[in-house]
Amino acid sequence: MLAEARAIDRAAGRYPDVQVALAPPFTLIGALREAVTAMGVGGQDCHAEAKGAHTGDVSAAMLLDTGADFVIVGHSERRKDHAESDALVQAKANAALAAGLGVIVCVGETLDERDAGKAVAVVAGQVDGSMPVGDGTADAVTLGKVAVAYEPVWAIGTGRVAAVADVIEMHAAIRERLIALYGEAGEKVRILYGGSVNAGNAAELLAAQGVGGALVGGASLTADAFLPIIAAAGNGEG
Q: Phi and psi of 125, rounded to 5°?
């Protein structure tokens, strides 16, 4: 894994205008932080409490101590498999910012919700309920430490990708909610697209209006798959 990460890191160094980061399992964060220099390192989740009797959980402060720059919260697998509510995701986001980490908050609808015509309403509700609102949030938003990842659940790891028109519509709806939450500062929150992003579709998705980057899953596991996505970002607006 570290050899692949070093190759990705070298590529990141060739595209200084593109922000590249990996979020490995907790056990590899420290080793990855030592192995790379040109990209960020993050955690895949954190606990909502800064400390306490929570055996087996990892706090935001622990992530920071081991070398993480940011953390992902609210991933669809956490929401589904661990029954995480919007309120819990928000608490985790607040904890991450309080510890000094950046945060990526994931939102997205299921296929049933999209087929029922509820996709925008579902995602807008997740944004309203999951985004951080604690002390220091305004400063973190202004500094670019808060991002949203729109990941339609039905497109994650399935090879299916949302139509570009649907991505544009959803990102516009998310932006509207961010401005409602944070005022003009909401314009500074980067909105990423996640869901079967690969070398073949990255350029089109990244060029879509309102898309500020990609949350890459399976294609981030190897340098050969991930490097074309970095290049696509570098050849666009970054």
A: -65, -35
Other beta carbons less than 10 A from residue 183's beta carbon = 11
- CA–CA gap between residue 109 and residue 122 (Å, rounded): 6
Does the pLDDT of residue 238 top 70, yes or no?
Answer: no
Q: How many domains does the chain fold into?
A: 1
- pTM, rounded to two decimals: 0.96
Catalytic site residues? 75, 151
> Does pLDDT of 237 surpass 50?
no
Bridge partners (DSSP) listed for residue 20: none
Phi/psi at 102 (5° precision): -80, 165
pLDDT for res 13: 94
- CATH code of the domain covering residue 175: 3.20.20.70
DSSP state of 156: S
Q: In angstroms, how far is the first alpha carbon of the chain from the final one?
A: 26
Burial of 115 (0-12, 13-18, 19+ CB in 10 A): exposed
Residue-number span of the structural domain to which 183 is assigned: 2-235
DSSP 184: G
